[in-house]
Amino acid sequence: MSVLRTVTATLDRWLGIEPLYAHCDVPCGIYDPYQAAVAAKTVFTMDKKLTELPTPGASAQEQLEHRNTVVRMVQTKESHAQICKQELLILWSDYFKPEHLAMFPDLHETFWKAAKLCSYNKQHVDVAKAQELMDAVAKISDLFHKAEAAKKK
Amino acid sequence: MSVLRTVTATLDRWLGIEPLYAHCDVPCGIYDPYQAAVAAKTVFTMDKKLTELPTPGASAQEQLEHRNTVVRMVQTKESHAQICKQELLILWSDYFKPEHLAMFPDLHETFWKAAKLCSYNKQHVDVAKAQELMDAVAKISDLFHKAEAAKKK
Amino acid sequence: MSVLRTVTATLDRWLGIEPLYAHCDVPCGIYDPYQAAVAAKTVFTMDKKLTELPTPGASAQEQLEHRNTVVRMVQTKESHAQICKQELLILWSDYFKPEHLAMFPDLHETFWKAAKLCSYNKQHVDVAKAQELMDAVAKISDLFHKAEAAKKK
Amino acid sequence: MSVLRTVTATLDRWLGIEPLYAHCDVPCGIYDPYQAAVAAKTVFTMDKKLTELPTPGASAQEQLEHRNTVVRMVQTKESHAQICKQELLILWSDYFKPEHLAMFPDLHETFWKAAKLCSYNKQHVDVAKAQELMDAVAKISDLFHKAEAAKKK
Amino acid sequence: MSVLRTVTATLDRWLGIEPLYAHCDVPCGIYDPYQAAVAAKTVFTMDKKLTELPTPGASAQEQLEHRNTVVRMVQTKESHAQICKQELLILWSDYFKPEHLAMFPDLHETFWKAAKLCSYNKQHVDVAKAQELMDAVAKISDLFHKAEAAKKK
Amino acid sequence: MSVLRTVTATLDRWLGIEPLYAHCDVPCGIYDPYQAAVAAKTVFTMDKKLTELPTPGASAQEQLEHRNTVVRMVQTKESHAQICKQELLILWSDYFKPEHLAMFPDLHETFWKAAKLCSYNKQHVDVAKAQELMDAVAKISDLFHKAEAAKKK
After folding, report:
1. pLDDT tens for residues F29-85?
2. Residue of F30, F74, F93 to mutate, testing the E interface (most E Cβ within 10 Å of its Cβ)
């Protein structure tokens, strides 16, 4: 969603402290892998929490609390895997430009696999795959910062 | 929302691999460039209608009707350009598999350019670019149907 | 009229965007029972899959995967039953005109019952009732295509 | 949306003070024409405000304020016409039961026309038609309260 | 001021539409604690229903129906606790003005605690806490009506 | 606590997903004034861009482009003012605890005024007021970081 993207945008400036909307009217600061990284981390956290949930006691009340928690965690995982995917695809489709393909010949492959990991993480409760997703986002984050650095030369 | 629907389809295939709507004319049905094509067409139609809107009369009432229409058409264009982009990226990230890259070496490039066209069409009222978007979706639709045909061999 | 066109409006309406061009050059294409049919089919598929889910093994991991799947399928059923209902009610309220009542004296009853079936299918996991919903949508689809055919005479 | 409906639900109990979820598991108290009436009133108010907006001064700032206001009012009108329609269709499809058709032979026609008025009001800035919509909702409200009264006998 | 008017604004705000007419002729109607009260009541009802759900029979079908119901009730509770919170915070931030602080020195504390109760009720299935939430909203409703009464003097 | 973690919760809450793990091992990271600051900055940027938009040429095409841009900027401003408000109110209602009131006696007032500024900025195109909003969020950010620092002692 454009709202998501716009919010994401300035996250990088928080870290890098570049002026907002620096030298172009559709600001170069607008893109950032930060939101995707947070979402991937949230998927991971939900998987971990779901996996570590203590077996509830036998009382009806404890059973209910447990179920309330599971439903809410599954929903949180679902929405953050979706956010992660959207954020990555915004970077791929809007931030990266033809000149970046020369710098990163595996650009398309990298994003493609990361997007497929998002879908996998929706469908499963799998801590190892959530870790893979975080790693994939970290790799993309690295490409992004290299592209940013290249801009400043 | 299209996100929900798209998730659904993935679910189907992940679990049962049954074609949703098996015996209809959209058979493998779960992935389909159809929605993207419709959205691209809607963007085109909005651009065309905006361009051809008659100059309103001078009365306050005619002016108001005119403005009501412009706001609604811009919003419709915006949301359909977004839908088009989402639908295309779902095809790219979920439907197409590594084996398709051998069949369509320009797969990534094709989707990348189409996604960029969606963003352009949000930012402008440009009939020619909306036509380009429709053509890009038609090309993707062609890839899709070739991939489907290959499955059945 | 191309198939493409016929779905355009469905999308619009699915998004809560009222068709803007009721008497314009995209008229017959604006309404379509297709989306409702897909949604009904999805409800049916979710019911079927839920009913046929294998009992998970005793391991915590298998239990978790199972619960992840159930929550996601119930949510998918819910949203598609809602989409089906919305799509049908758009056809009823916007597509069908007074002249169609003469052609289809049971028009109102037909839609009324189908809408009630959508609500029923949210509240239950009932394959037979999901089948009834698909049949109801198929009947409505038939009315729609008869109305379209009458236009062209 | 189910949220909308559920919220609406208790509005009638505010007026009628019936226990929530009284004697059925899909509570008889849940339906109410109140939300639709409020939405129709909002459409009317937006039309009136749009019609009465003073011509802005010539300064760029006044022009901007004016445009900000118009866009926001058109959007408010759009969403409330949509809410009105949804609320009415929920009453029609879920609240009214076959036994009510005997009491109100024009039930279907009444709702059909009201729904069509909602669509009209989206597409235009027309105070008289917004008044018609409020009247249509008032008529439906009357049917509703008669149906409620009949229940208590 | 008619009852109808008083709820208009609540709807607006629920939809994220900021009231456009703060100093206009529909002023007293714009804010209302009614929506929050309904939402709190819905949270209470969901907790009660969840707590009282009969243990399902051993058949797979009964188990499925039971799970369908639990997921739907947890979701309904979640969304209504969120609506309740939003509605309360709109009253606090938009309706109450500096002059009300003199009338109600504990205004901020009252809202703060009520908002925290909303969050608690999302995270738990706790009938007693849902009752506390209803009481908190009732207290706020009382402040609101006192503020309204003061206006008319 | 990593930077990554600290934003996770903001996202959750922005999506209406209440943090599930209030006393768990991801505690200090869950709340963050960052999202609100980005949203306030976006409101400011939209006001600035709207104010500085060049007068379009007389051609129909230039007029259309101009209107497309205005509608989109007003919408972006609206949604970010709303996000800013939501983010601030989450901090106020969920992050800050009774012990913080002793540290920050003007806590409630500070948030109250900032929330009112969000509403003002929706209703107007006013660069100075958007600057005030950014300042208000910066002040809140300062309170937040002081509260965080106090935790670690």
Report:
1. 347 788 799 899 999 999 999 999 999 999 999 999 999 999 999 998 999 999 999
2. F93
- Taking only the tens place, the pLDDT of each residue in D98-115 is 999 999 999 999 999 999
pLDDT at position D31 over 80: no
Task: Provide the token pair at B79.
Answer: 């949301």
pLDDT digits (tens, 9 = 90+) for E51-84: 999 999 999 999 999 999 999 999 989 999 999 9
| Contact with chain D for residue F51, Cβ under 8 A | yes
Say how many residues make up chain C.
Answer: 153
Looking at residue B32, its pLDDT comes to 79
**What DSSP letter does each residue of chain E carry, written as one string?**
--HHHHHHHHHHHHTT---S-TTSSS-TTS--SHHHHHHHHHHHHHHHHHHHPPPP-SSHHHHHHHHHHHHHHHHHHHHHHHHHHHHHHHIIIII--HHHHHH-TTHHHHHHHHHHHHHHHHH---HHHHHHHHHHHHHHHHHHHHHHHHHH-
Taking the CA of residue E123 and the nearest CA in chain F, the distance in Å comes to 7
Which pTM was predicted?
Answer: 0.83
Q: How many CA atoms lie within 13 A of E129 on its CB side?
A: 17
Model pLDDT for residues C118-134, shown as the tens digit of each residue: 999 999 999 999 999 99
Which are the contacts of F81, defined by CB distance < 8 A and separation ≥ 6?
E18, F39, F43, F118, F119, F121, F122, F133
Residue A31 confidence class, pLDDT cut points 50, 70, 90: confident
CB neighbours of residue A153 within 10 Å: 4
Contact C150, C103 (CB under 8 A): yes
Contact A3 F41 (CB under 8 A): no
Q: What is the mean pLDDT of chain D?
A: 81
Give yes or no for F127 touching D (CB within 8 A): no
Which of the 8 DSSP states describes residue C21?
-
Chain F CB contacts of A42 under 8 Å are 8, 11-12
For chain A, positions 62-81, list CB contacts with chain C under 8 A: 70-71, 74-75, 77-78
Residues of chain F with C-beta less than 8 angstroms from the C-beta of E123: 18, 20, 22
Interface contact F8-A83, CB threshold 8 A: no
Q: Taking CA atoms, what residue in E is nearest to F108?
A: E108
Q: What is the pLDDT of residue A28?
A: 28
A50/C64 touch (CB, cutoff 8 Å), yes or no? yes
Q: What is the ipTM of this complex?
A: 0.80
Identity of the residue in B29, B38, B49 whose CB atom sits nearest the CB atom of C11: B38
| C82 touches B: beta carbon within 8 Å | no
Contact status of B59 with chain D (Cβ, < 8 Å):
no
Residue B26 is predicted with a pLDDT of: 25
Classify each residue of E33-45 as buried b or exposed e, where b means 16 or more C-beta atoms within 10 Å of its C-beta: bbbbbbbbbbbbb
Residue F3, Cβ density class (10 Å: 0-12 exposed, 13-18 middle, ≥19 buried) = middle
Residue B83 to residue C15, Cβ atoms within 8 A: yes
pLDDT, position E2: 29
d(CA A135, CA D104): 64
Nearest CA distance, B22 vs chain A (angstrom): 23
| Beta carbons within 10 angstroms of residue E142's beta carbon | 13
Q: Is the pLDDT of residue C11 over 90?
A: no
Q: Are B87 and B2 in contact (CB under 8 A)?
A: yes
Nearest-Å Rg of the Cα atoms of chain F is 18
Whether the CA torsion C23, F70, F42, F91 is positive or negative: it is: negative
Which of A1-10, A106-115, C31-40, E48-57 has the lowest average pLDDT?
A: A1-10
Q: What is the DSSP string of A78-92?
A: HHHHHHHHHHHHHII
State whether residue F89 sits within 8 Å of chain E by CB: yes
Mutate one of F74, F120, F123 to test the D interface: name it (highest D CB count within 10 A).
F74
